[in-house]
Design goal:
Layout lengths: L4 H11 L4 H15 L4 H14 L5 H15 L2 H10 L6 H17 L7 H21 L4 H23 L6 H12 L6 H38 L14
Length: 238
């Protein structure tokens, strides 16, 4: 059980909002030392895995300058101004639509979206623009809430949608786990059982988006309401 100490370190580190990269590295070292690996072998294994998977970092490294240039030239403002023209859209509807698109895309192996490439520069400003078009100016607390829901929409769509794709790492890991315990389970069977979970996650996200719209409307009503003792009374004799 001591070998599971890495899971506890990751949980505590994320709960306390420590640096994610530092937490993961410390958890890896702690797990290796608890498993009895010599220090030299542990460092060599981490280096080997980093070199083997270094290509995974290339999209993020190449994407950051591109997204930075787009934001510098007004990508967020343009996305917000476009969404304000669609009067029927609300912040919740924008995020729910993105959740569905994210799920469908990743379920067929298309990595459409992402926190850095889609949520921050496009989806969050669109949701904020829809909310401003419906209720006017937003408070900092409501803006933060919309951005949090935008990040959650990407996570829900990606996490629960990718389990439907047979070539994703999570499905392959589950198949390898069953095979190690003598159970033969097909990839299509595993992917099929991911569909009810994805639909349930989408339904929960729909409820959260609806609750978000109600919260935005309630905040707007509270901001524009006038206290009773400040309402002018009609008539000089009243």
């Amino acid at each position: 059980m001591l070998k599971l100490i890495g899971i506890a370190i990751v949980g505590v580190g994320f709960a306390l909002r420590w640096n994610a990269l530092l937490v993961v590295v410390v958890a890896g070292f702690a797990t290796g030392l608890a498993a009895g690996l010599p220090w030299h072998d542990l460092v060599a294994e981490l280096g080997r895995l980093f070199v083997q998977n270094r290509a995974l970092a290339l999209p993020a490294v190449l994407m950051l300058p591109v997204i930075g240039l787009l934001e510098h030239h007004g990508l967020q403002e343009r996305a917000e101004s476009l969404i304000r023209q669609a009067r029927s859209l609300t912040a919740g509807r924008v995020l729910l639509l993105y959740t569905g698109v994210r799920q469908l895309a990743i379920s067929v192996g298309i990595p459409l979206g992402g926190q850095a490439s889609a949520v921050r520069p496009v989806i969050a400003p669109m949701a904020e623009g829809a909310a401003r078009a419906a209720t006017g100016e937003l408070s900092p607390a409501i803006v933060a809430t919309i951005r949090a829901h935008a990040a959650a929409a990407d996570n829900v769509g990606n996490f629960f949608g990718e389990d439907i794709f047979v070539a994703v790492g999570g499905v392959l890991l589950m198949r390898a786990f069953f095979a190690a315990h003598g159970m033969t389970v097909g990839l299509w069977s595993l992917a099929g059982w991911g569909i009810p979970t994805a639909l349930a996650a989408f339904a929960v996200m729909a409820w959260r988006c609806r609750a978000l719209d109600r919260r935005i409307a309630r905040a707007a009503a509270e901001r524009t309401s006038v206290p009773v003792d400040r309402v002018p009374r009609g008539g000089s004799g009243s």
